[in-house]
Amino acid sequence: MGRDPAYFPEPLRFLPDRWLRDGEDYDDDLARRRQLISGLPFGHGSRMCIGRRFAEQELYLILAKLVQNFRIEYIGKTPEPVLNTVLTPDRPLKFTITPRPERLT
Ligand code: HEM
User: Fold this and answer.
1) Is 2 in the pocket of ligand 1 (CB under 6 A)?
2) How deeply is 70 buried, as exposed, middle or buried, from its count of CB atoms within 10 A (0-12, 13-18, 19+)?
3) Strand partners, 95
4) Is 95 in the pocket of ligand 1 (CB under 6 A)?
5) Residue 11, exposed/middle/buried by CB under 10 A (0-12, 13-18, 19+)?
6) Which of 23, 20, 47, 44 is nearest to 31 (CA)?
7) Is 49 annotated as a binding residue?
8) What SUPFAM superfamilies does the annotation carry (predicted)?
9) What is the pTM of this model?
10) C-alpha 52: how far from its chain's center?
11) Is residue 49 in contact with ligand 1, taking CB distance under 6 Å?
12) Which ligand 1 atom lies nearest to the CA of residue 40?
């Protein structure tokens, strides 16, 4: 579903701006369809993950803190996705993680 151009135009391009909720390219209808059914990492319906909002908040905070405090650079070969119930990389991912001289917090 994440590669269906009906929900994600140019699905293989890295376009983080597609998740922004404003801006001239924002398409309300596309955003709603995307949010409703384009991915189900937390399940769906009455037994869906009760920890979803908690997990999402943790992810936002952890990622923000990491990029504020460290320069993170991918130094491996471009990974290919492998379907393994969920998509996983086909190789170990190698990064350098360097403390930023200036703390941005
Ligand atoms: C990225 C993190 C997480 C993912 C991807 C995830 C995913 C899922 C999925 C797929 C289900 C099954 C939903 C279904 O049957 O339709 C589930 C259930 C559940 N999750 Fe999570 N989860 C995450 C984090 C958490 C956290 C942080 C908590 C608790 C603080 C949590 C608590 C639960 C509980 C209690 C259920 C069972 C709900 C029920 O059966 O009524 N999860 N989760």
Assistant:
1) no
2) middle
3) 74
4) no
5) middle
6) 20
7) yes
8) Cytochrome P450
9) 0.76
10) 14
11) yes
12) 10
